[in-house]
Design brief:
81 residues; mainly alpha; 3 helices
């Protein structure tokens, strides 16, 4: 019975020490990782610029007053000749 316990304890203790390694000796991020993150940031920026332009146009349309004389004659499309 002692031999089984000792074997089970050894089989559980040895892999635990290997899995608990800190990994402090790793080099860090490689060039391709940095390139991939920069590419993702460029995609976000290039999607943000048209979104901000569209948002500004929406705010401009909401807060500017339209001329009531021109909007009724040109906007309905029922121009009889």
């Amino acid at each position: 019975m002692k031999a089984i316990r000792l074997t089970a304890l050894t089989l559980l203790a040895v892999p635990a020490a290997a899995l608990a390694a800190s990994g402090a000796e790793r080099e860090g991020n490689g060039f391709l990782v940095i390139l991939f993150l920069a590419f993702g940031a460029l995609i976000i920026v290039f999607q943000l610029i048209p979104g901000l332009v569209l948002f500004g146009s929406m705010l401009k349309g909401l807060f500017t007053r339209s001329d009531p004389e021109n909007s009724s004659a040109e906007g309905n499309g029922n121009n009889a000749v």
